[in-house]
Amino acid sequence: MKTIRVQLQERSYPIFISHEKNEFKVFAEKLARLKPGNSALIITNPTIGGLYVSKLINALEANGIHACRYYVKDSEESKSIKTFVAVVQKASSLDVKKRLFFIALGGGVVGDLTGFAAAAYKRGIPYVQVPTTLLAQVDSAIGGKTAIDLPAGKNLVGAFYQPLMVYSDINVLKSLPLRQIKSGLAEVIKYGVILDRQLFGYLEKNYARLLRADPDCLAHVIAAAGRIKAHVVAVDEHETAGFRTILNFGHTIGHALETATGYTQLAHGEAVSIGMAAAADIALELGIFDPKSFWRLINLLGHLQLPVQAPKVDLKAVLNAFYRDKKFIRGAVRMVLPTKIGHVIVTENIPWTVINKIIKKRVANHEY
Amino acid sequence: MKTIRVQLQERSYPIFISHEKNEFKVFAEKLARLKPGNSALIITNPTIGGLYVSKLINALEANGIHACRYYVKDSEESKSIKTFVAVVQKASSLDVKKRLFFIALGGGVVGDLTGFAAAAYKRGIPYVQVPTTLLAQVDSAIGGKTAIDLPAGKNLVGAFYQPLMVYSDINVLKSLPLRQIKSGLAEVIKYGVILDRQLFGYLEKNYARLLRADPDCLAHVIAAAGRIKAHVVAVDEHETAGFRTILNFGHTIGHALETATGYTQLAHGEAVSIGMAAAADIALELGIFDPKSFWRLINLLGHLQLPVQAPKVDLKAVLNAFYRDKKFIRGAVRMVLPTKIGHVIVTENIPWTVINKIIKKRVANHEY
Question: Would you call B150 and A122 a contact, using CB atoms and an 8 Å cutoff?
Fold first, then answer.
């Protein structure tokens, strides 16, 4: 068991990375010690819930916590106002003479939805993140960014609202498809590039074991990613100081690719992978990133079988989405660009000609 | 112009109580200095908006702030998920390359809705309260409690989210019906009982002038109320330390009366008035409140033409609502009871027989 602490004064909380086969026994014990309430509503999806929710409920009941489950669809659809209202109404029906809290058992969708429901229900009740995808374990479950979508845009309604704890169980990753493992590893590469060249070196050495979902290797990178995310969040919890922005490395062009493809064709990590390659291109073109580091990044993405080019994507749709993106600040495009492995800058001084050229390169229909 | 400061570290903000006829000129100047953004969405209702929104927009534009209006119905209906989504979608349509913020121009409904929309839109944008009812000026616009309703209950979805400033213009109260003035004064009496016997004495001396909506008297009580609310909020922003609970004096039985009558028959202050009389009854019955203070409170409510008994209310409905109220903590009823003018206690040790007897007295169909 590894423990990392997110330092946020009275909102500080632990991230546990569990390796042992304890079927949520240790989770329930650790949770009970935090006194979150005596009644848990577990938000999960049928796939993950079917595998783990009974074990989780048993472990909670053994620690004096009454628990109910609530299933939501395993898709972005669940980040809707409709599902949010359903969760809150469910909570309200349970919350009689009991101190209720939420448990998010699932990936990013379940975590984002549950976190926002916890933030808004009765102006805030406690919640706990039990991320079950690698992507959620290394990124979305940590840091308190919660949100749901509106027709007008993704994540338009949300809150910064920190969980009581994050419990990442390596064992649950066994049921994860390889494509989702790789998608999570894209975010781990991101942490290496923005702040941790040692982590980057570890990935270069251990990519083959990671692709086999080796539990020791996964535990190592989940802990490393958790430490970096916890640090960034502690420095700039509400993304007001500018520092948290560096987490958007690969995401500016990545989001445009996701929007242009309706969030169906590319996994999030795949879009981020292409976005990181594009940001590296731009940095290379501007002369702030050296070719050797550039190729280290491109090669590592390749070793982890992540794409560096988007096939079957409409260039015009990507450009449209890009220039409408929220990272657009007063007419300038703000991007995170690498200067070396382990260091990035945030800049708004990028000629549009360069951006357009690189986007074209990364969505063109030929091999790079 | 009186100024009060709500002390909440980086979330501190001023409350201005304006007396002069300046048609929002001073408001816009003070606001511009806080640099809230360059684009304002004013949420208001047709009645208040019809009277003031053009003047407000002119004043904002003169200070370089572009402004749009968005009308919502002047009723509790507007605290719905549907209206919330409409406001956020409207915001999203305006928020291109601009730094948007909200202005709540109206009473408690507009303030609660706008505050929550500001809290949740893009995980939080700035907002300003311009309360136009006495009730909102002395209570709901201060302290950052925002919420909307769900079918399952009122204020079930919300946030603690502080405004950038509160601007209470006495002049706008001229268009307010006398019944709403009295309703607001009930909350002012509440402040006197819980924390400020001088304010209570002021009300005893000046009730006749207050009923004539004398501007100097109103400015005095709005400032006094603002100071008390600011103090309570500064000590216990999130209602976690127990102190903010004293603001519920008169509200436990008051809310039950409002629920039992479907929020149509009684104005909020009227329900609170009856609730304060009932809480005083209980304190008298328990021997913790002296008869002289008891009669001072009952007489002041009478002087301000506020009810101390609910006519045409179903006793059973009130008792049902009361025992389902959220102030119900693990089976015990938590109430705020006066011990003298200027001091209250929060207690859970009230025999149900006493509570039932007093509720019966206050909803019985005869004069007290």
Answer: no
